[in-house]
Amino acid sequence: MAVGWWSTAGPAQTLAEEWNGQDWSVVPTPSGAGDQLDGVSCLTSHFCMAVGGGLIEQWNGTSWSMIGSPVSGANLLAISCESSALCMAVGSQNNQTLAEQWDGTGWSQLPTPSEGSQASFSGVSCPTATFCVAVGGAYGAPNGSPETYIADWTGASWNAVPSPDPGTSEGYPCAQRHACEDALYGVSCFSANACLAVGGPYQAIAESWDGSSWSVQPAPNPVNGDELSGVACTGPSSCLVVGNQTPRSTEQTLAESWDNGTWTILATPDPGNGPNGSLAGVACPAGSSCYGVGQYFRTTGMGGGPSQTLIVSTPRPGPPPTPLQVACTTGYWLDASDGGVFAFGNAKFYGSTGGTRLAKPIVGMAATPDGQGYWLTGSDGGIFTYGDARVLGGGGQTGIVDMVRSSDGGGYWMVNSAGQVASYGDAKNFGSAPSHLAAPVVGMAPTPDDGGYWLAAADGGIFAFGDARFWGSTGNIRLNRPIVGMATSPDGAGYWLVASDGGIFAFGDAKFYGSAGGMKLTQPVVGMAATRDGQGYWLVASDGGIFTYGDAQFCGSTGNIVLSKPIVGMAAT
């Protein structure tokens, strides 16, 4: 997600653009006259926070909503979210530093140290819940010039930290024009012991944090008038920085990589009729690329003609990223059609058929009640067991599309696309769908007491058996995409249906927590799972991309892994 502002002839309006893995597209944002967004932080595809001036907006995966700063006269410039329960926004108020904290429910102002007659924060990075760094500038030098200013958050308070000023440390006399005008604009912390801050404005400035002190990392200055505005670190000493240089009174994009103390200037495009661009920010999400954002002018010369948004990309610096590891209190498995199993969070890997030549593809899985094992089933009803899962029967079927287990794990059901149900172990058979269905059955779910079950068809039609009650369906609704799965609320008094475009339909006491129906997906959604308390759910796409809603935690995905075969389903611990 990239944010900024736009204007034609009237006052500025907020702007947000979303990357879906293939294309950038404008996303509507609430805005008043003169509003703009200066910083954004995204934890997942459905949680972002953006700030600008006195404005704070939140993204839920489908739309932006305005929150607003609780501080009158706030000028917020940057934000960093460590989790959905901790975001830090920084800027200035009444010419002094400002920090505001999000605790998961609301924003509040935090005391910050003051410095000189004027001070402001321009960048912030929070690698942990108990460590954040904010950087900016302060007018406190004896000659009245601005100097770099850094403060850190300990989890309880903000405290000023000594920061060097390259203008003086590199030997330039302060009497020389602009020599001591130093300020920091951006910062990125890979950990609490590894940060890089960058700035300007008349020479490229870079300073690194090693856990105990800040030191200058002399950055190359291709021409006089360079400045660095944004930074993203992918390792303790691997960072990408962006900004601009100003040769012959024209702005030109600038990007540099910092790898183990060595700087390299990177080639950057300058669209338009000449070098008239600048880069303001950069991000390196999980994957192989980093994205820099800024603006350029259509005609030569600084400020020449109307400006246009500019987005560039480059490979990530440093070694390839390691798989995301998130401390989760829950977990889930994803299963592929070749029987490959991928475990995340507290879900353990007990084995798979990924290296086995199967007679028929895997179509579903179910976890044992204690989460210490799981079953995989093929389209022929063949059963593969791992961990403490036991074989209770199977095989000899055709067109199986799903399986679910009984509450004690002593049995399981299978259903085929014609709605015919097969039961094994202590799972009782309560009937099958009628013949001549309008649409094939795609999934099933049992009631909490194992006294019944529901079958869901691709058109959203619901068939209830035993003590399962009918709570509603989409059978009479024209769907954008077919239904591909279902999940039930803990008490069995409701259920969710999910479509391949990520659309969610909630019935009974199952609450709607959001959907991917308004997103441009890289691959279609193929299944879902509800959290144990029914206060959230996960959606999984065929590339293993995970979408979380409500209290469902993101514990990892295979969205950035090249799979041998597509993901076909998931099960939660």
Question: What's the short story on this structure?
Answer:
With 573 residues, the protein is an all-beta fold. It is 1% helix and 49% strand.
List the helices and strands and how they pair.
Elements: E1 2-6, E2 13-19, E3 24-27, E4 39-44, E5 47-52, E6 55-59, E7 64-66, E8 75-83, E9 86-93, E10 96-102, E11 107-110, E12 119-128, E13 131-139, E14 146-153, E15 158-161, H1 166-169, E16 182-191, E17 194-201, E18 205-209, E19 214-216, E20 227-235, E21 238-245, E22 252-259, E23 262-266, E24 277-283, E25 289-297, E26 307-315, E27 331-336, E28 341-345, E29 362-367, E30 373-378, E31 383-387, E32 400-405, E33 411-416, E34 421-425, E35 441-446, E36 452-457, E37 462-466, E38 483-488, E39 494-499, E40 504-508, E41 525-530, E42 536-541, E43 546-550, E44 567-572
Antiparallel strand pairs: 1-2, 2-3, 4-5, 5-6, 6-7, 8-9, 9-10, 10-11, 12-13, 13-14, 14-15, 16-17, 17-18, 18-19, 20-21, 21-22, 22-23, 24-25, 25-26, 27-28, 27-44, 29-30, 30-31, 32-33, 33-34, 35-36, 36-37, 38-39, 39-40, 41-42, 42-43
Characterise this structure:
The strands form 13 sheets. The chain has a four-stranded antiparallel β-sheet, with no helix packed on it. A hairpin with a 5-residue loop joins β24 and β25. The chain is built from one helix and 44 strands. It is mainly beta and 573 residues long. The protein folds into three domains: 68 residues; 233 residues, 6 Propeller (Neuraminidase), CATH 2.120.10; 242 residues, YVTN repeat-like/Quinoprotein amine dehydrogenase (Methylamine Dehydrogenase, Chain H), CATH 2.130.10.10. About 3% of the residues have low confidence.
